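chain below, 222 aa
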Amino acid sequence: MLDDLLAASKWARALSTEQLQRVRAAILVREFLPGNYACHKGDPSSFWIGVIDGLVKVSTLSDTGKSVTFATFPANSWFGEGSILKQELRKYDVVALRDSRVALMPATTFFWLLDSSIDFNRFIITQLNERLGQFMGAFEHDRLDDPDARVAHTIADMLHPQLYPNRGGRIDISNEELGYIVGTSRQRVNQALQVLEKCGLIKVEYREINVLDIEGLRGFGG
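prediction:
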């Protein structure tokens, strides 16, 4: 439900009743089956995107057919603010990995919030800063870490309280979906998860990872 997403969003809880009503009325809700595109690379950045439920990935495909996944976004995530602020064409595809519902906030509403809400401004500044830090960390891990450490650090990143709120210590994700983010095969992800589980850092269940020691994951392989 859209109301659940807004209730979980720190910026929305800080709005006045009138502001929240205007935002809610403007947001479009769309449903997507696995493999469906919510946005295409090259589309105008006309919406800020929130995930109501399901899981979507942000990726790009090269001319030679090589795919790179930048991130996946579960329920209660918001993303795409950078493209809106720069008013540029979207540089990535947004694809549903499972049955998903997304909230599309029009850019006009996004900019109205920037003009009318200090709390929203602070949220967006923090969001951009944390996203930059996460991508810089991912770049470092990709260059320096072995696959086990990359999986460990990716799992820890997916519990970031600003970017992926209200997840607790549980991550609802399959090995294949995790492999998209790490950039390795489902089989190699499975091997890494077994290593991390033996170290007492996580507990693996069907399509679910329960994190037992997030600091251990952050420091794994260091």
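Residues 35 and 117 are 36 Å apart (CA to CA). The radius of gyration is 18 Å.
thats it, cya
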